[in-house]
Amino acid sequence: MIEYGMPTLLEFNDIEECAQLCAELGLRFIEINMNLPQYQPDRLSQDKLALVAQQYGIYYTIHLDENLNVADFNRRVAAAYCATVADSIRLARRLNAPVINMHMAKGVFFKLPERRVYLFDEYNARYMDALREFRDECTKLIGADDITICVENTDGYADFQLRALDMLLDSPVFGLTLDIGHDHTAGGVDLPAILARVDRLRHMHIHDADQQHDHLVLGAGNMDLDDRLRLAREQNSRAVIETKTAVALRQSVKWLIAHDWFTPVETPPDGMLITPTRGVAAGV
């Protein structure tokens, strides 16, 4: 079973506006995007988020800041990012959010005449040590809670990133997010890496794409959406419909319904809290 959700949208300044649309479309959850200023950990009202979730019968996942770089060579910068993740884990625990989505930074590169050198590759021991420390701290903070930090593909994994990814996946609190649009615009280079680790796939970002553009309305690009959605169903993965406007989201939901991939859930009576389905992308 695929549980569908939506992202927090730029056009909505308040979580309740997002929740109203989420419930109207029969979706199960909202992915809180911490790139937006109103969704920073120190500005969020946990009580309000919990109340909105209860009122509209939804739950949350969390998308960390895309600039996140827990292995930055500047220790103060890295420490700030690690503290942000720790705050997000505590928020996820409070909200019963089952997924924290993160990007894996490639870091700075030097462009030499004959090749591009990534500093995380050149100074790989430091990079791996920092990520190992991050992994262990997250593992300790999450403990036995049903929270998974899912690493999202962006524009093709470098070899040093794959080594780091496998090291993170040594911990049970880490998993994978497959962003199908990112993979498509990158020429399909991420999918083999995901499929080689498919038992750790917990989360997906779905949107259509062509060779130049992603985050398109479902059905507007040239991707084999049925194939990707079959993968989501086989893995019991959650799926964020990651289009960027309310109009595009409505159109994408219509496509899913028309192609028999989605039956909207009925909003429960006011005051009845929906919790994430245990076993959906949780391995339990």
From TrEMBL:
Taxonomic source organism: Candidatus Fimadaptatus faecigallinarum
SUPFAM superfamilies: Xylose isomerase-like (SSF51658)
Domain Xylose isomerase-like TIM barrel intervals: 20-257
MF term (GO), any: isomerase activity
Protein name, as recorded: Sugar phosphate isomerase/epimerase
Domain of life per record: Bacteria
Keyword hit for Isomerase: yes
Record's keyword terms, sorted: Isomerase
InterPro entries: IolE/XylAMocC-like, Xyl_isomerase-like_sf, Xyl_isomerase-like_TIM-brl
